[in-house]
Design goal:
By secondary structure, the protein is of the alpha+beta class. The chain has three helices and seven strands; from the N terminus they run H-E-H-E-E-E-E-E-E-H. The protein has helices at 2-19, 44-54, 147-163; strands spanning 37-40, 60-64, 70-75, 78-91, 94-113, 116-130, 136-141. Strands 1, 2, 3, 4, 5, 6 and 7 form a seven-stranded antiparallel beta sheet that branches. Helix 2 packs across helix 3 (147-163). The longest helix has 18 residues, at 2-19.
C-alpha cells in the first residue's frame, strides 16, 4: 500500500512538473512612442508654407488659414499599400500572402507659441478587407492608427522648413 501511495505521489509530481513548463509568449511587443506633435522654432508663416509644401500633391478637403495664430488643414483619403498588414488567400490550394491596401486621412493644426509654432497631426487610418477569393470587400477602421505616419509628416515639414529659401530681412534691419 505504501509503495502504491509513493508511486502515485511520484507520478503526480512528474505530471505537475511537465505541466508547468515555459509558457508561450502572448504579450505584444511595445514599439517606440512616436509623437504626433512637434514645436518648430519658426514663425507661423514659415511653418505654414512648409506644411502646404508637404501636402501640395494631396487633395486638401478643407483649409482654414484665416486666423494668424491658429491654422488647420485636412486631406482627403490617401490610398497606399499597407506597410505591415497582409491577408492569406488560397488560390489553387496554395496559400498566398496578399498585401492589403490602406487609406489615411490627415488633420493638421498649427498654432503660434511664444518663440515658435506647434504642429499637431491627427491620423485616421482604414485597412482593406477582402473576401475569401481575394476580392475587395471594403475598409475597416484601424485603432490606433500607425504613429509613424504622423511622425513622417512632421519630419517632412521640418525638412521643408530647412529647404525653403531664406526670407529677406525688413529694411530697417539692413541699415
Amino acid at each position: 500500500m505504501k509503495k502504491i501511495t509513493i508511486a502515485l505521489l511520484f507520478t503526480a509530481l512528474i505530471l505537475s512538473a511537465c505541466a508547468s513548463g515555459p509558457k508561450p509568449r502572448t504579450e505584444t511587443l511595445a514599439y517606440a512612442k512616436l509623437n504626433n506633435e512637434r514645436v518648430f522654432d519658426y514663425p507661423m508663416t514659415t511653418t505654414w508654407k512648409a506644411i502646404q509644401e508637404v501636402f501640395r500633391n494631396y487633395k486638401i478637403t478643407s483649409q482654414d488659414a484665416s486666423d494668424a495664430h491658429k491654422r488647420k488643414l485636412e486631406t482627403d483619403w490617401i490610398y497606399s499599400q499597407s506597410r505591415d498588414r497582409y491577408a492569406t488567400i488560397v488560390i489553387d490550394k496554395i496559400p498566398r500572402q496578399q498585401p492589403l491596401q490602406d487609406r489615411v486621412q490627415f488633420k493638421v493644426r498649427a498654432e503660434t507659441l511664444f518663440g515658435g509654432t506647434r504642429v499637431t497631426v491627427e491620423t485616421s487610418e482604414e485597412i482593406e478587407t477582402i473576401h475569401d477569393d481575394g476580392t475587395h470587400a471594403g475598409y475597416d477602421k484601424v485603432s490606433p492608427p500607425d504613429p509613424s505616419r504622423a511622425a513622417d509628416i512632421l519630419d517632412k515639414t521640418g525638412r521643408a522648413i530647412l529647404a525653403a529659401p531664406p526670407t529677406a530681412a525688413p529694411d530697417h534691419l539692413n541699415d
